[in-house]
C-alpha cells in the first residue's frame, strides 16, 4: 500500500489548530483519554486510519514499531489433526499414510472449512474501519 500522501498533511494540521484554546484543549484531552483505552488509538489516529485504510496508532510508536501496521497476510491452511491415544496429532497436510479421504475413513478431529469463503476474505481484506 502506498505511504500516506503528504498533500493531506496541511489538512490534518489545520484540524488541530482549533484545539489551541483552553476548553477545546480540555475536550480533546478528554476525548483522547476515553478513546485510547477503548480503541487503542487517539482521535487523530482514528482519522489517519480512516483515510489510509490501515491500522495506525500512536501506541505502536510508543512500542517501537511503525506508526501504521502492515496489512495482515492471508491465513494459512488449517492443520489436519487426527485422534491419537490421549491427544491429537496434527500435520500441515493430510498424511499420505491415511490414504484418500473417504466418507467412512479417518476423519480430522475438527471437520470444517479449511479456507476462507470469498465473503470472509473480502471482509478480512476490507479497509479499516469497513466504511469504504
From TrEMBL:
Question: Can you name this protein?
Answer: Lipoprotein
| Organism listed in the record | Roseococcus suduntuyensis
Which segment of the chain is annotated as a signal peptide? 1-21
Which keywords does this chain's UniProt record carry? Signal
Amino acid at each position: 500500500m502506498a505511504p500516506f500522501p503528504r498533500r493531506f498533511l496541511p489538512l490534518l494540521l489545520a484540524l488541530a489548530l482549533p484545539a489551541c484554546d483552553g476548553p477545546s484543549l480540555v475536550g480533546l484531552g478528554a476525548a483522547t483519554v476515553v478513546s485510547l483505552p477503548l480503541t487503542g488509538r487517539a482521535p487523530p489516529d482514528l482519522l489517519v486510519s480512516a483515510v489510509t485504510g490501515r491500522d495506525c496508532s500512536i501506541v505502536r510508536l510508543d512500542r517501537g514499531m511503525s506508526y501504521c501496521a502492515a496489512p495482515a497476510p492471508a491465513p494459512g491452511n488449517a492443520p489436519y489433526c487426527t485422534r491419537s491415544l490421549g491427544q491429537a496429532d496434527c500435520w500441515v497436510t493430510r498424511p499420505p499414510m491415511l490414504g484418500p479421504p473417504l466418507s467412512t475413513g479417518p476423519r480430522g478431529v475438527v471437520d470444517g472449512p479449511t479456507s476462507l469463503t470469498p465473503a470472509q476474505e473480502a471482509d478480512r481484506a476490507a479497509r479499516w474501519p469497513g466504511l469504504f
